[in-house]
Structures
1.
Amino acid sequence: MAEVEAAGSGTETGGGSESGNATGSGSGWRRPHGPLQRYYGPSAAEAAEATPDPADINGPHFDPEVFLTKVRSECRLGELLSREATLGREIRALDSDMQTLLYENYNKFISATDTIRKMKVDFRRMEAEMDDLASNMAAISASSARVSAALQDRHRRGAQLAGVQALLRKLQSLVEVPGRLRRWAAPGADPARALHCYARARAVLRHYRHLPSFRAIEDESHSIMAELAQRLRARLRDDTLDPKELTECVEMLLQLEEPPEELCEEFLSQAGARLEAELAALEAELPPSDPSGTASTPPPASDILDFVDRGSSAFVSNLCLLAASYRSLFEGRPGSGDGRLEAFASTLTTRYFELLERRLALERGLGDTSLLVRALDRFHRRLRALLELLPAAGAEAGAALVARAARERVARYLRALQTFFLGCLGDVRQALAAPRPPGKDGPGLPDLLATLSSSVLGQLKAVLAYVQLFTARDVAFASLPYFKGEFCVEAVREGLVVAFVRWLCRTARGFADSPAERGAPAAPPALLLLLARLCLDYEATTISYILTLTDEQFPPEVGQLFEEGVRRAQSSDSSRRAFSVYSSSRAPGRYAPSYTPSAPMDTHLLSNIQKLFSERIDIFSPVEFNKVSVLTGIIKISLKTLLECVRLRTLGRFGLQQVQVDGHYLQLYLWRFAADERVVQGLLDEVAASAAHRCLDPVPMEHSVVELICERG
Amino acid sequence: MEDDAPVIYGLEFQARALTPQTAETDAIRFLVGTQSLRYDNQIHIIDFDDENNIINKNVLLHQVGEIWHISASPADKGVLATCYNKTSDGKVVTCAAVWRMPKELESGSHESPDDSSSNTQTLELLCHLDNTAHGNMACVMWEPMGDGKKIISLADNNILLWDLQESSTKAVLSSSSALEGKGQLRFTSGRWSPHHNCTQIATANDTTVRGWDTRSMRQIYSIENAHGQLVRDLDFNPNKQYYLASCGDDCKVKFWDTRNVTEPVKTLEEHSHWVWNVRYNHSHDQLILTGSSDSRVILSNMVSISSEPFGHMVDDDELSDQEEQHQEEKIFVYRPFRIKEPLQDSVIATYEEHEDSVYAVEWSSADPWLFASLSYDGRLVINRVPRALKYHILL
């Protein structure tokens, strides 16, 4: 390397050799030029060379000359030596690296060449084998074609034979049909399989019946099936069949093409007999019907719920089953759709209803009402299920039955209340009549009264609570229209509560009115006093309390949803009438100016003056949610409409008088519904004035007559 | 004196018939017909002096009966038609006739009002509209913008089209049509559309509004159940040919597009009783006037369905003229004159000067910012559109 550097230095510029010399000579005087040169020299060269650095030994633009020059000019000897050593080391390392790489890759290359050579040899052998294979395959396919051609004929014959065998097997089974039928159709065997078999064979037999042998088979199987049919029919008449077996039996007969009408008849009579038996079983529980009704019948063995349960689980569910299977069996067949089932079912249900009614009639005492309600509920639910299948089976009758039972129960409660009241009275009488130990007062009248009234009221409440069970939400029949409306109003409110109060009044009066003419002892005066006080209390508070209670417990009316509003002028009815009499004295004056022709503008003036003092009435003003405000709104709209309608008319004398009467009537009765009666008054005045204006012949009616007409109404 | 204050005029009789003098476009003049069963009825010619805020009146006698409807010829200031009740032996019939007022009253009189009332003059009868075969007359409509020779009257269930001949002294029935249907059908009111060459009218009977073609006298559309109750009055939008307003006893005012009548375009519910009258302003159709038997007159601004451009709109033509060269600067230009607050549909004013049911409201034919309303007690009130709104519309 040193030589290289030395050789390079020969070509150096003068400055360069100079520095070399200086270094070589070791004289130090020119040394200061070194750094200067180092500073200026390369920078000038770099400016000319532009960006790529030829001195970068690893760069792409490496120029050994430049590098050498640079190194030589820049470095001192020590540095140069060390750099030489470094470079030498690096070169050696690179050499060895290169060698290693070369060896490794050489090995790989050698092995690849080997492989390729080997492959070449192998493939040559394989090619020959492939040719062999191709010729062999051709030979095989040719021989295969020959074989299959040779076998074709035999194959066809084989297939034919198989076909014949299948046919023979079929024939065999056909021949076996009668035997099988006989086996299966034998009593106690499996008639369903016989039927199945017969159904399959029948079509074939019918098709080949022109062949004598087949005819024989057909005839034989026919007779077997006829026998089977007869047996089935016999079985049909058997009483012990359960409904499922009955249905099966009829189904099989239908499959045997027996006439459906007859079957239908038989089916119904058979099923009817069963249902009758069930009804009879139910009836057996009832005592023999006793038209006189005097004999004291023993209490029924089981309670009503039990009875209804049994009836519905046995009779109603069997009837449902029957109806369903009847539908599935005979639907669409001739002779079944003419309401036969409906008629059949309705006679049976009627009987069932009768039985149930008789059973209900046995419920003499007050028993357990909840039990009765539950029984009726169950009955109703079951009946509904039946009605879905058979709409004609008597829905009204069922509902009526339930309603009747409920009414009956309410009536019984009324009687019980009456008895209770009489009993209480008896107690009171006894207490009054009992000899008192001297010095000790008996129970005072107020105590007796309190006891009496509280116990009666308590009893009444208890009764109401019981009756309410009939309209409970979870009871199915409570949604019937009868129970929603009429039952609450007619039966409970009127028939029970009001009737009891009336009866109480009658009884009390009976005590007061009847003298001892019948020989019965006259009522003691203390009792009369007590009753009088009781009636007074009833009039003042108790009756309204009871009725409110009833109305609350049974569906409330709309009006109760809204609170009462505030009325501005709350005068009583009587004072109102008095006022109207007072105002009537000046009322005719209102019409007076309208028939004095000399003063055409007076009415006008008068109405304007009136208006000066009255406030403007907002017709459709906002309404609050209370009764009075709503009613006031309605009244205002109605009266304003009346006013506008009157103004659009031309009235005769009687028209005016009619409006006059109407106005007076409204004036008498409308104020109590309005929040502010001045509004009513003002509007009615305007109506009257307008009517007078619109009248051709304004002769008003005498005011007393108007009043008379309105009072009479 | 404050300019916006209402001017009130009182008649001695009750009244429900009011019309502007349609042919007069300079002076503000209204005609009012009275209703009295027992005295001679009158027609008051009300002149309003806008500058001095003074009312001058002239009274004409209308002796044949009480007036239910009045309408003025659009061509001749002196000609008008009335529908009036005639009572003969206990029966009341509504007839219609065309009249001429004395020449000197046509253009108003400048005599003092006291003098003119003392010597009342009488109307000259031009012709009767013979309705003996057709029933009671509900109203008479003149052909809008016509020559005053064609009128239509509604009588019970008949639409009668008349030709006035020989300077209106002879009325010839040129065609007619009858509304057939179940029950007793009666027209309550009608309007003649100023569009489509004046070939369409609209009528109201019960709750139904019907449109008719006057050439064929056939029905062209029908709005069943336009109102929940009786339809009282109709009016056509003067600028939008398919728009129609109706009002009725359900206290509502409804606006219809006659091309699609299944639903009203808009509904107003401001009155608290029957709405008897609805009128579009003749020039600015966003201004709607309604009168009701709740004694109120309501002026509404229905700008969203009017012919006025609604909302923010910048005219492109104007832009291109002035600003073609200044496209870049456009964004930065501040233009206060173009940015106009869009008005919402709203009630502009409720007029409460009346104390009785208002049966008629009418815009003046001369001044588009002025209107009159008449209540049953004979009070006529003249009001103006609020000045702020007027400027808003104009500027």
2.
Amino acid sequence: RGLASGTDGESRLARLLREKFPRASTIKVVDISGGCGDMYEIHVESEEFREKRPVQQHRMVTQALSEEIKHMHGLRIFTSAPKG
Amino acid sequence: MRAALRAAWRIGTGAALRGHAGRPLSQAAGDGGGAEGGGGSGSREAVERLVREHPVVVFMKGSPAQPLCGFSNAVVQILRLHGVEDYRAHDVLQDPDLRQGIKNYSNWPTIPQVYLNGEFVGGCDILLQMHQNGDLVEELKKLGIRSALLDAEKDQEKK
């Protein structure tokens, strides 16, 4: 499925996110750069986001991935707290 | 006290203009955080002035007439949908100091960046979310801007 670099990037980012968001119920990372590894879509659902404004939630993600983001062309972020 | 600070700031600027590595503005003016090029376009002061220039300020790649990035284009299109055509847009591709300075200011790593009433609201994902859940209409209302979508709804109801 796509070039190796894309899949490696997805795994690496997902692993990083699992470390930074230990209470996450869902983490999904998708390479949307056609496998070039420089643009990603990031989905994180976690209790850690509850009661936080979207921009605060997104900032938690950008700070967790600050080093990685320096090498990215762009990224999309989708965050939420678990329902209920 | 204030006169001393003003004098110190002038010295700082002068040193920067003379090309000294010298005392960073942040020490002279007493603000926290790293100084950017001695009062240049990426400095905290310069960015602060820009974000307060207008109720709606966007830092993007390209211009509203010609966005140069899909995410920046998305912001322009969303604002257009709401009838917001009068806003300040800054093309960071034209100014590397501003491009870095705005990221430092908001502690946010990407462009575009949307500021409403001087406050950082988010990038294109957040603006899209706000558009979809109705928050953007509310935020615009707080700025005294009536979203065009409200009028569009009214037309629908009349039919």
3.
Amino acid sequence: MMNIVTELQKDRFTPRYYVAALTDNMSLPKAQVYEKSLIHGDRETIIENAEFMQIYRSREVGQSYITAIATTLRAILHAMWLIIRIRPQVIFCNGPGTCIPLCASAFLLKVLGLGWSSIFYIESIARVKKLSLSGLLLYKLRMADQFFVQWPQLQQKYPRAQYAGRLM
Amino acid sequence: VIDKEARRLYIMDPIQTSQSLEEKKLRNLSGYFVFHFMLWWNGEDLVKPICAVSGNLNLQVEHFTFLPSIADSIREASLVISHAGSGSIFETLRLGKPLIVVVNEDLMDNHQSELAEELAEQNHLLCAHPQTLRETVEAMDLHALQPYIPGEARPVVALINEFLGFPV
């Protein structure tokens, strides 16, 4: 994801909201390091154009599917609240299950005419022959406006996907 | 044929790779390399047994839970042995270092091996299982590996900008 963010023109995509799973300890610090690096000059390093937030996961690895029903519901409600609060115009997501409730909420608002988010999905580079579950859902349900894969084999298998090379 | 002069071998993370190098294999490999074990995770459980083995070997164990950049360590290495995480793989390839990826299907989702296998097919790295690691190291011909040309986000971002109506 940071490959994409570093390449974007920041003044076109501001303010930026980074959302990671509650149990993910590595992604937000990476994003914070990057956002700090964007600040020039002697001003204190207070990040003004970005916010960092964590979201409940639908299901943790190894969690029973029965308790996952309740946690998925919680994740959906949390995602809906975040989408309503942020009202993003653009959503970039790259695969973890955390993005599904967010994309679904944004898509729902679109359908109800209550908001408009362009949703861009970039499948993980680790996916060479098969899509992730998140990717498969977004692809089949046509929830993403643009769906990128990073290997030509996947683009052949999923023709509505776009292949524009690898990010890494 | 393995060059007998002392080389630095960095074994990146986790438990999968480390556990696969049991004492016997470590002894067999130690004739060729100076080992640096880099344990990324809660290395404490593993540090003791590895240090116990390393008493007789040229073994240096470093462990950390989060390092902003592992690049400096990789630069010093003559060979990197890593698990199949895409971050570890691409960081090593980007720095132009020979890489052996250990794929352990017992401990991780199958999809993680797709990336390593594809890159091995393209001759950018060597792939091994825990059981075959030793033979791989003994038989490896690192000069046959093809340099990896890193990808970039620009083509994807150009398509995103075009979709959003920004001048490209």
